[in-house]
Every structure is written in C-alpha cells, then in structure tokens.
Design brief:
A: 111 residues, mainly beta, 6-stranded mixed sheet, B: 112 residues, 4-stranded antiparallel sheet, 11 strands
Chain lengths: 111, 112
C-alpha cells in the first residue's frame, strides 16, 4: 500500500527564515510526486509535479526536489503570505491516476 | 480561464436525507476525481471518472455513495441516507489527461 509521510506536522518560522519541508514515500513505482498548497477553507492549489530522482522545480520562494525515497520543499526567505498547509501526494504506476496524500505540514510565518 | 467549479459550497442535510454535490471541470479537461477530507484528516481518494465512465472507484464506500459524469453537464457525487460521519469537505479535481490534477474550492457537507 502506498504511504506518504510528511514532516514536520507543523512549522513556525520568522519572516526571512529559510527552511525545508519533507515528504517521504513508499511506492512500488513512482509515476509522479505532487506538491500542493492549501489555505483554510479552500481547495488545494497546485504547485509542482516531479517525475524522476534528481529533478528540481522552482517558483518564486519555493523549490521542490526529488530523490528515490523523498521530496523536499525548500522555502527561501518566507513571507507571512506563505503561511498555509503544504500537501505532498504521489501517483503510483500501477494505481492509475489517483493521488495518495500525506497529512500535510502546517506552515506559519510570523512577521 | 475558469477553474474547477463546485456547488454548493456549503450543504446542510439532516440524517437520512440525500446530498448531491456537483463539479464542473476546467475547460478542456475530461478527467474528474473526487476526494474527501474528514475533519483533522488528510485528503482521501474516492473515485475517478471520464465522460460516461467510472474508471476507478476503489475509494468509494460500498453503500450509499455513487458518482457519475454524464456526456453533458457536471459530475455528480451522490450520497444517499446521509449519516453524521459523512460530514466532511468534498473536493473535485480535474485534469486534461491522467496527470496533474487541479482542485476546486470544495463542498462542505454538514449532517445534523
């Protein structure tokens, strides 16, 4: 059974304090790994798709990386508006298109 | 370019009633997915549909839940005889193929 574990569960940062969120996964064959951002009361907002180990994607202050067992979401010089829950999800080769989500990391950036 | 649309945004039902949740995918997307987010839990896959076909319903409860995506109109998630445990946020996502999924704002179902 696919497993996705995110850590930490919650993270508090000061504005400008860079950090990383972790997503470790156990699948028999990775088809894709996805990062989403979710604000309270809203739907997940797509950030990145990663397909193979060594791949990196960047968008503004966010950078996602992928290894064979985990993915990191690096946040550089965060701002209060980056506060949200960050979700990691995997698609497994033999499970079709469905996404298996982790529990998320709740990020709070204080001014 | 409108995103995924879901309605209603909030739905209140009494135990035993039926709930109908609607989802209109993004323009050009023919793949629709439904996920459920129970309070204090993560998102769980329910069902994957293409026009007029259910592709994967491995996450759907065996009873009371059904989904459709007709040739014309939105996808519908139907919950019959709702119980308090059905209270959750239900999210629809769409994709142009079987890859990146884009989510709607969700329907928050409350069962009294």
């Amino acid at each position: 059974e696919d497993q996705v574990t995110q850590s930490p569960e919650a993270l508090r940062l000061q504005e400008g304090e860079s950090s990383s969120l972790n997503c470790s996964y156990t699948v028999s064959g990775l088809r894709g790994l996805f990062w989403y951002r979710q604000d309270p009361g809203k739907g997940p907002e797509f950030l990145f798709t990663l397909y193979s180990a060594g791949e990196e994607k960047e968008k503004e202050r966010l950078k996602a990386t992928l290894t064979k067992k985990e993915s990191f979401l690096h946040i550089t010089a965060p701002k209060p508006e980056d506060s949200a829950t960050y979700l990691c999800a995997v698609q497994e080769e033999t499970s079709g298109s469905r996404l298996t989500f982790g529990e998320g990391t709740q990020l709070t950036v204080n001014p | 370019n409108a995103g995924v649309m879901q309605n209603p945004r909030h739905l209140v039902r009494r135990r035993g009633q039926e709930a109908r949740l609607r989802c209109s995918p993004m323009k050009g997307h023919s793949h629709v997915y439904w996920y459920r987010q129970l309070p204090e839990e993560g998102l769980k896959f329910m069902v994957y549909l293409q026009k007029e076909n259910i592709i994967d319903e491995s996450g759907m409860p065996k009873e009371r839940f059904s989904a459709e995506f007709p040739k014309e109109g939105p996808s519908i998630l139907r919950i019959q005889q709702v119980v308090r445990g059905d209270s959750a946020a239900y999210f629809c996502a769409s994709s142009p193929g079987g890859d990146t999924q884009y989510f709607g704002p969700g329907t928050r179902l409350t069962v009294l």
